[in-house]
Every structure is written in C-alpha cells, then in structure tokens.
Amino acid sequence: MFRSLAARVLLALVAGLAAGAACHAIDNTELISAAGIVEALGGLWLNLLRMTIVPLVFCLLVTGIVRVADAAATGRLAARAILLFSAGMLIAAVYGTLATQGALALWPVDPTAAAALRAGAGGVNLADVPVPGLADWLKTIAPSNPIQAAAESAMLPLVVFGMFFGLAATRLTAARRTVIIELFSAVADTMIVIVRWVLWAAPLGVFALSLGVGLRAGLSAVGAIAQYVVIVSLITASIAILPYVVVALRRGVSLSAFARAALPVQALAFSTQSSLACLPAMLERAQDDLHIPPRVTGLVLPLAVAVFRLTGPVANLGVAYFIAHLYGIQPGLPQMIGAIAVAFTISVGSVGLPGQVSFLASMVPICIALGVPIDLLPILLAVEVIPDIFRTMGNVTGDLGAAAVLHRPGDDVEVIDPVSAPA
Fold first, then answer.
1. Cβ atoms < 10 Å from Cβ of 182
2. Whole-prediction pTM value?
3. How many domains does the chain have?
4. CB atoms < 10 A from the CB of 51, how many?
C-alpha cells in the first residue's frame, strides 16, 4: 500500500505545483479563487493528520520504553545490545545536528526559493519570535500539567512525562505491566488506523497544499525541494559509515568480510525500503559470511530491527533543521538539546510504523521542540520516498554491524525465533 501511495503522492506534488504555477501565470481572479478553495481542503487534510500526533506519540513512547526495558531484562547480551543501540542513536542525533548545520552553511538555500516555499505554507515567519534562554528552557522540561502540555502540543515536556510514565510502568508486576502495554498499544493502533485513513487521501491533500505553493510562487520552490532531497539523503547516507568504523575498531570481524556481507542486504533494503523484510537476509549473511552463531544473531538482529533505527535521528533532525533554515530561524543551544532528546526518544517509539506514519509521528515533535512550523511537512512527505531509501539502507547496515560488534565467544542467550520477533 505505502510504496504505491508514495508514488501517487509524488505525482500529486508535481501535478499540484504545475497546476498552481499555471494559475499563477494566467492570473485569472475566478481561477485563483477556486484554487484557494482547493487549498483550504488541503489545510483540512493537514489538521486531520495533526489530531492524531499527540496520542500516537505518547502511546508509542510508553509501550516502546516498557518493551525495551523488558528486552534488557532477558540477559547480558540483550542489555549490551540496548546500550549499544542507545549510544548509536545518540551519536547519530548529535551528528545529524552538526552535519545539517554544516551542509546548510556551505550550501544555503536560495532566498527566493525559500521565500517561495514559505509562501506556499501560508507565509508564516517565525524568525522574530524570541528564543527562550537556558533558564526558561530548563523550567519547561518537566510539565506541571501533562494534560495542558498535550493540549498545547508541547512535545518536549510530554516526551519527558511519557519517559517517566514508561519507566514507572516497568516497576509494576508483570500482570499490570501487560495491561499498560495492551491499553496503550490499542490506543496507538487506533491512531494508526485513523492515520491510514487520512493517508488514503494523501494524494488529494498534497495536491491541494502544493497547489497553494505553485499558486503563490510559480515553480520557484522546486529548487528548494530538490535541495532538501539532496541534503537529507546525503546526510542520512553518510551515517552508514559509522558501523564500518566501529566494526574496524572492534576487530572481532574482518572489515572486508563485513562489507561483503552488508552489500546484498543493502541492495535488498534499496528495493524494499523495509528493515523487517531484510531480516532473513541479515540472519543468513551474519551466520554464513561473518560466522556469528545463531544464538547471537537470533537475539541481536530481531531486537535491532525492533528497536534500533540508526538513521532515524539523523534524517529527522536534518528535516527539522532544513525547515528552520527556510524560515531563517536559528535555534539556540537549549532548543538543539531538546530536539536531540526528542529525536533520540521518538526513534524508539516510532519503530515498526510505515514510512509515512513514522515520518509524521517523528517530525512533528522535533519541529515543535525546535520552534519551527510544521506546515511544510506534507510537502516534504511527498518526496520522502527518496531519503527513505537511504534511511533503510543505513538501518540494516547498523543492525548487521551491531551483531558483529556484540558477538563474543561464550555468550549464553536464549535464541529468539525471528518469525515471532517483534516487528
């Protein structure tokens, strides 16, 4: 469904920009008025997506933390895996911040193209909004009223509350913990059903929104969109070097052998854009080419597919900082720290979601933490199919690298059936 949907959304983006540019060139009052009504329908579609984000993010975060804590309790190898995954995603989040800022400093977006894209989102400009200082930011980390934080879409304090809630749930008895997981999983699944319904109309919604972009700016915004795809794709692809570096330093597995084992898995990831679909190939290459025993691969690789997204923080922060750059916003250090924390945490909670659902559930909290508008996200979602290829390739490389790094002779773990492993 979602691969064909991505193609239809991309076509809708192109058609909307072209139709809007045509209306812009003709400059007919009645035609522009009709196009404005169509654009309003795009705003309605965007609001339908927004209404699911807060409950979806909170529920995914709670269940993700509880399940990861349960996984860490299954043995020494699982605990080491969780620590490695956490360190990898934290490094990726910091790298995503530095790399995107550096790329945009070397290759800034053309002001005309940036203005055109902003105009398509309604002309919002937050550059003059005062940035809170460190003292003010520290006071907002923990919500005095979680319900109010949710109502105001204050994502960082909501994420903090969700982390404490999830960690506290791990201290309950197994029976009560199961109730928590079932309840929040049911709510999250319900939100995902709603998102799927809304995404069925994504071609129409994106067409309507991109029509507004073309109506206000003609085709001037195309350059900014193309630059976004190139920057985010390159930064996402570059983090895949990290597993090679760690494997080389670990010296437990030959770097050349790891590269040969990773290549067919990366090719499969390129074609499927699904880490889960690559799991059988990862198991086979890890055991046959890297000689990692099944007692290690049977635990580490399914666990990695379930909770480890190396490229998630990099790509998501890259998107958020690109949007900030378009609006001329310079986030302060507190906002950057908050965005890194949110990106790191959300990467665990959004694992296993389809690409479009994961993109929105991940990006909205990070953008809000940085103080940047989210109105451009549907337009960028339309071209996410390209960066998503590099997301998946980097993720499976990280998963395979984790298995190579974590393999130690003498590990005694219970083998998990990959078929029944969490998705």
1. 11
2. 0.72
3. 1
4. 13
